[in-house]
Amino acid sequence: QIEKTTNDAEIIAHLIKEAFSGFPWNESLSRKECLGRILKDFQRDRFLGYLLYIKGEPFAANWVDQLSINQIIEQRGKSLANFAQHLGQNSVWWGRDLVVHPKYQKRGFGTQIRKHVLQKLKLVNSGKYIFTRMRQDNVGSIKICEKLGYTKTGILVPSSQIQGLFHEYYYLKF
């Protein structure tokens, strides 16, 4: 389990930098930007996350937090909030980043860690929903979500990174 320590933040920042430097993101993020991302997420309500290690080397992380309807409206828009309310939810879990070091990608580790987080959530929140979003060209993450049973919401938002691409929201009842 991710502890909200400086050490875990540094480990995750390194994974973010490595994972987002390749396709499809091709982002050139500084250590400070990566650290800022995870430290911001550490402050979110009901943060829950896990790191995977092989022979003592961290290589993957996935984390979630809980959003109220008002937070969904603020962070993701009214359409998604309305969708969640239509499902009878006044809060949902939000799947934040799934990061796998490039040398370990395409080996099933992303599926493994996301499945582990879902199992932990199910233990304490059965009958709830988790939402996430993925950019259309992020085929690996889309395949993971589809394999785990996520469903498209039909809600698309323009990508802020690449003009003409969209992020699509997905959800899963666990």
Characterization of this structure:
- 40% of the residues lie in helices and 30% in strands.
- By secondary structure, it is α+β, with helices and mostly antiparallel strands.
- A six-stranded mixed beta sheet has the order 1-2-3-4-6-5, sandwiched between helices.
- It is globular, with a radius of gyration of 15 Å.
- The protein starts with 5 loop residues before the first helix and ends with a strand.
Features:
single chain, 6-stranded mixed β-sheet, 174 residues, 40% helix
Break the fold down into its secondary structure elements and pairings.
Elements: H1 6-19, H2 31-42, E1 48-54, E2 57-68, H3 69-76, H4 78-86, E3 91-100, H5 109-125, E4 129-135, H6 139-147, E5 151-158, E6 166-173
Parallel strand pairs: 3-4
Antiparallel strand pairs: 1-2, 2-3, 4-6, 5-6
Helix pairs in contact: 1-2, 3-4
Proportion of residues in β-strands: 25-35%
Number of strands: 6
**Radius of gyration (Å):** 15 Å
**What is the average per-residue confidence, as pLDDT, rounded to a whole number?**
93
- Continuous helix count: 6
What fraction, in percent, of the residue positions are helical?
25-40%
Q: Specify the overall morphology.
A: globular
| Succession of helices and strands | HHEEHHEHEHEE
| Computed structural class | alpha+beta
The poorly predicted ranges are none
Report how far apart the termini are: 20 Å
Strand order in space, largest sheet: 1-2-3-4-6-5
What's the story with the biggest beta sheet? 6 strands, mixed
